[in-house]
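Example (one chain per record):
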Amino acid sequence: MKLSAPIYHLKRHAKLMARDENIPLHSALDRIATREGFKSWSMLSSQHTDLISAQQIYKSLKAGEMVLVGARPGHGKTLLSLEILIEAMKKGNRGLFFSLDYTSKDVAKRFTMLNANEHHFDGLFVFDSCEEICADYIIAQAHNEPQGTYIVIDYLQLLDQKRSKPELMVQVTALREFARQKAMTILCITQIDRTFDPEVKTCPDIDDVRLPNPVDLSLFSKACFLNNGIVKLHSL
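Predicted structure:
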């Protein structure tokens, strides 16, 4: 059964409910489970055991890494990427969000969904939706950023949508070298192929990444995949 949000988000909602309504946490968890179509939280959690939070993912990442974040539409890949960026900014790191898909209103809405205030990160967070976004553009904009900066690219398959831009493989290679040289962490949101069948496997993997143009995915050190509230992190 598909969850309305990753399980760690549901836990957060339960904690807020318990606090606001002055009820035991286990009662709040059961209420959330009922809304999701389960009789109790224990039944929900037993069916969604392969989980990892944005905070755990953030702690596992190292400066200079390139990370894929993939899911079918509506399963939370952009929300998770933004949450990882927020975790980085909580530690004082700069966070750059480049998107060829989102608007500033979309980003503000996601901050609200994550119970975060975008203005708390003034001076750290940069949102860029320029139509010229590609590897060269991102590198130029981030060139003077400090080590430890986190960059989210939304999304991989749009980087070479214009014929005037270099091939996707060339761009990913350039981003990989830039991340290493500057000790920055780059998360690339990626589409998942329509052939992915959740009845065959619970979550997409590297073989399900949609690649209309060739890319050597070994350039990425990690990949995070989402489906129906499940989040899995793999080393590549």
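Caption: The CA atoms of residues 23 and 68 lie 39 Å apart.
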